[in-house]
Structure formats: C-alpha cells, structure tokens
C-alpha cells in the first residue's frame, strides 16, 4: 500500500503533498495512494536522551520491556530515539524493527572506577578510556562517558576527555558526556565532545564557546524540574543546597543557551517513556521560543542524527496534527497519525 499525507510542513509551514515510496518520501503522485492524514506535518519527533529496556537503577536489560518502551515512544509520535547509555547490548532488531523508532545508541555507559550506578556500565581506567570509547563508537556510532558523578568525586581530567573525543572522532563516531557539575561541564567543553547530557551547573560564560564548537546540549529539563520539586518536598535539613540551586538555575541556563545559539536536543531521560511533549513544554516554559523548542524535538534533532525532513528522498517518517503545534504545544499529546518507515503505525479514528 502506498500512503499519502498532505498539509503544512514544519519548519517552513508551506503546503506539501507527499507519497511514501517504501521508506522514502516522494512528491510524484501515485494514483492508488491512500490518504492517511491531512493537517500540520512534522518529520517525526525525536527523544534524544532515553534509556529504554529498564525502569529502575541497576536493573538488567530486558528485551520485552525494551519493546514496550519503544512502542510508547511511537504512540507519542517519536519516530527516532538516541540512547546515550544502555543497561546492556540491544537486540539485533533495535532501531530497525518496523514498529519501533529508528535508534542510535552509545552502548553501556563508560565511567571512572568507584563512580556511577552499581550494575550498569563499564568502569574504565583513564589510560584505556580512549580506546574503549573508540571501539564502542566504531560499533554503534556513539560512546558515552560519565564525566562527573557525586559532587565530591574527581571529574574525568580534560586531557583524558580530549584524548577520548579525538579517538572517537578518528573512527567516525560521536562522544556524549554526562555532566551535572560545573567542573565536568567545563572539561567536556574544553575537550570538544559532541553533546553534553543534562548540563546542570554549566558555567553560563561557556555558552558562546559551546555554540562555537558545535556542541549540542540535551538539558533533560522536565526531569530536572521534577527532581527539584521532589527535593523541595523534603525537610530543609535534608536538601542538598548546591543541587537545589543548580536545578533552580537550569531553566534560565537553557534559555540563555538557546539565545547564544547552542543546539538544544530534547530528551526525557525518564520513566514512563513516551513523554517527549513534557520536555518540549518545559523548554518553552523556560523561555525557549515554541518554534525552537519543537525543533529540538523534531526537525533539528533529526538533522543532528543525519535524517532529512519532509522532502523528497527523506526517510518516510511523519507525525500529523490538526493544528499548528507551535501555537499550542498540547497538540503534541494528540497526533492524528504517526507514519514510520512509510507505514501508518498509529492513526486516530
């Protein structure tokens, strides 16, 4: 079956009429094509920071849970994900199964000895980190390093992160770095990594440098705000003042990053899966223009992953809404249709 969608396509808002020729869009009319949906068209949503296949810290990777999580993403209009860290090696169908999103992953987290979550990731000596990260990136395209963990821990030295980034880049890969402290964020920027995950407590003075170096920021803002809410429910004596201050400052930091030209990627890092709309709304509430908040979860995030938008020859993904979601981000909760790999996998009656 050849399917067809038409309407105003974002980001430009111009009218398009597209046909799915297998897993590629074309504007060449097909006489027996089935019109699946008409409305406002996005080239699919992206969750750029999600860890499907587990629901609790330290839990072992579960293939059935993985499929359930990925299907929840599709229900929300997500047709591509990036998993910067997994609890185990994914099955062969990950990223290619016709009913689940396209996927990029970094394999297991790479952390320093004595740091990170018990049962997850690999602990790697500094001398071995560049080669281990490069080997992972050669397999999956990405590697993920935990640059900092607890406030009292030593961060991965700049020299080690720099060597790791260079080794990953030498094999054609990309390096994501977890950072929630100022020192780790500064080291990641100096090292020239490809993306900073979370970025709480980043020095605002580094934002121009981050933009100049083409480093993406995945602020996981909705998760940070939920964490702040939980922290504020505790008695004051049980709160970590530095963490509270960083979480309170995070929305302003994210808005300033957008203003400075930093590429933002929308990522949820949360359970339940399929809540990318929460992250887009959090970005907008922080002061990011709705157009740019949506870009971080759609066309710009797809471009970052190498996926063109709604143009001839592009992968045949789309999510369709009745109204322009930039004017009402709650529209993201109510897609008319989700098209994945040229197939209508979700269509609202």
UniProtKB/TrEMBL annotation:
Q: Cross-referenced InterPro entries, in alphabetical order?
A: Amidohydro-rel, Metal-dep_hydrolase_composite, Metal_Hydrolase, Metallo-dep_Hydrolase
One family from Pfam that matches here is Amidohydro_1
- Coiled-coil intervals: none
What is the organism of origin for this protein? Saccharothrix espanaensis (strain ATCC 51144 / DSM 44229 / JCM 9112 / NBRC 15066 / NRRL 15764)
An example Gene Ontology molecular-function term: hydrolase activity, acting on carbon-nitrogen (but not peptide) bonds
Query: What is the name attached to this protein's record?
Result: Amidohydrolase family protein
SUPFAM superfamilies named among the record's database cross-references: Metallo-dependent hydrolases (SSF51556)
Please name the PANTHER family in this protein's record: ALPHA-D-RIBOSE 1-METHYLPHOSPHONATE 5-TRIPHOSPHATE DIPHOSPHATASE (PTHR43135), AMIDOHYDROLASE-RELATED DOMAIN-CONTAINING PROTEIN (PTHR43135:SF4)
For the Amidohydrolase-related domain, which residue ranges apply?
Answer: 41-343
Keywords from UniProt, A to Z, are: Hydrolase
């Amino acid at each position: 079956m050849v399917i067809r969608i038409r309407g105003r396509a974002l980001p430009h808002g111009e009218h398009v009429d597209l046909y799915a020729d297998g897993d590629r869009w074309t504007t060449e009319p097909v006489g027996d094509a089935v019109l699946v949906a008409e409305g406002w068209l996005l080239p699919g949503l992206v969750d750029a920071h999600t860890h499907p296949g587990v629901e609790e810290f330290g839990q072992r990777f579960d293939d059935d849970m993985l499929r359930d999580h990925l299907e929840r993403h599709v229900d929300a209009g997500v047709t591509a994900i990036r998993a910067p860290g997994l609890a185990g090696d994914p099955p062969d169908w990950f990223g290619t199964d016709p009913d689940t999103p396209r996927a990029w992953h970094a394999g297991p987290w790479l952390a320093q000895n004595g740091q990170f979550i018990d049962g997850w990731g690999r602990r790697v000596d500094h001398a071995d980190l560049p080669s281990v990260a490069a080997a992972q990136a050669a397999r999956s395209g990405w590697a993920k390093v935990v640059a900092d963990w607890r406030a009292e821990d030593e961060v991965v030295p700049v020299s080690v992160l720099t060597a790791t980034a260079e080794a990953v880049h030498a094999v054609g890969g990309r390096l994501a770095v977890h950072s929630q402290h100022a020192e780790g964020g500064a080291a990641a920027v100096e090292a020239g990594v490809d993306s900073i995950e979370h970025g709480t407590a980043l020095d605002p003075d580094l934002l121009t440098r981050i933009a100049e170096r083409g480093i993406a920021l995945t602020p996981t803002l909705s998760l940070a705000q939920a964490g702040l809410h939980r922290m504020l429910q505790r008695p004051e004596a049980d709160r970590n003042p530095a963490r509270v201050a960083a979480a309170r400052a995070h929305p302003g930091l994210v808005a300033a990053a957008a203003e400075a030209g930093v590429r933002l990627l929308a990522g949820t890092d949360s359970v339940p899966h399929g809540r990318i709309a929460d992250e887009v709304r959090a970005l907008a509430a922080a002061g990011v223009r709705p157009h740019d908040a949506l870009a971080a979860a759609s066309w710009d995030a797809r471009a970052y992953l190498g996926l063109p938008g709604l143009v001839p020859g592009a992968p045949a993904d789309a999510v369709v809404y009745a109204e322009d979601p930039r004017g009402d981000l709650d529209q993201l909760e109510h897609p008319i249709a989700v098209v994945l790999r040229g197939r209508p996998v979700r269509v609202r009656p």
